[in-house]
Specification:
69% helix, mainly alpha
Length: 215
């Protein structure tokens, strides 16, 4: 008779299995994730909406001063790379830098590839928020982010166990509400709706106790 390891047969018990993503999977996740985020940004820009985090700051600079969204988004993320290197490691920070650069480039290019003859603002808020949430989910699951608040949210989850989606939702809501001085109240309300949709996607799907893939 051969010895066998005991098996946990309790209802709901699941054996932890850590699966490391190969490099090509990480690369595709960065490309597809940032493309989804850029599409959501295109929806928001056309509808005159905004979101939280560094993306929201770039929107505000674009709406208020006409500055390039991609350029502002790149520059405003630079200070957060220090936190990323210090607390999350070089691998995470390098992947995040690549994701930020891709979003900056794709956000500028997407309006030349996709045009909207008509776009309902409510649909733009919901679908744009969901698209950005799905894009961020792909990045998070491959140990990357879009810098800024994303780095802080992931750090809070890994260090203190707070859900990344919940942390980001609280910060994003504050940024969007502060935008009432820049955009009309109805746009702010729709932006809040979009922020809730974005972070709902993250809060439901991105939990450290459910997903164990690593990069």
């Amino acid at each position: 008779m051969t010895d066998q390891s005991p098996v946990d047969e309790r209802p709901g018990a699941v054996a932890a299995l850590f699966v490391r993503h190969p490099l090509w999977e990480d690369a595709l996740a960065l490309l597809f994730g940032t493309a989804l985020v850029a599409l959501g940004i295109a929806f928001y820009a056309h509808a005159g909406l905004l979101t939280g985090g560094t993306v929201g700051i770039a929107f505000l600079a674009n709406y208020q001063a006409g500055w390039s969204f991609g350029l502002v988004f790149c520059l405003v993320n630079l200070p957060f790379y220090l936190l990323g290197i210090w607390r999350m490691g070089w691998g995470f920070t390098l992947r995040t830098g690549c994701a930020v650069l891709l979003v900056s480039l794709l956000a500028e290019a997407t309006p030349h590839w996709v045009a909207f003859a008509h776009l309902n603002a409510v649909y733009a808020a919901l679908f744009g928020g969901a698209a950005m949430g799905l894009g961020l989910l792909m990045l998070f699951r491959h140990r990357a982010s879009l810098g800024g608040v994303n780095i802080l949210a992931l750090y809070m989850q890994e260090r203190f166990g707070f859900r990344a989606g919940a942390v980001q939702m609280a910060i994003d809501a504050s940024i969007v509400l502060a935008a009432i001085f820049v955009v009309s109240p109805d746009k702010v309300l729709l932006s809040v709706l979009g922020a809730v949709m974005l972070n709902l996607v993250l809060a439901i799907n991105h939990r450290a106790d459910r997903y164990v893939g690593v990069s």
